[in-house]
Amino acid sequence: MFNDGMIRCDLLLWHEDGTGTCIEVKTGANNRNDDLTAIGQLLFYGKCIEKKLTNKPRLVLVCPRIKSGIWEIIKEYNLPICLLEVTEDKCIYLSNGTR
To answer: Bridge-partner residues for 58, per DSSP?
Structure first.
């Protein structure tokens, strides 16, 4: 967990090329507020981390089930968030097309 007093993202990766990836992990409870909170958290974390990196980090939401409504919102509003569905037997990555 990354905690600088302002943000507490679940996982923050710093890459050799000076970029970063902020990963928010959710349990996948069938709760719309969980998904909406994750989107808001990632956008906020991305802005805070951008100030430290001087470039925009990749934003990734990890959950056991990608809900089509969340993916549609991310695509329709061109949000810079990728989705990663991880279960016991598969891993599906959906890029938002921005990187």
So the answer is: 21
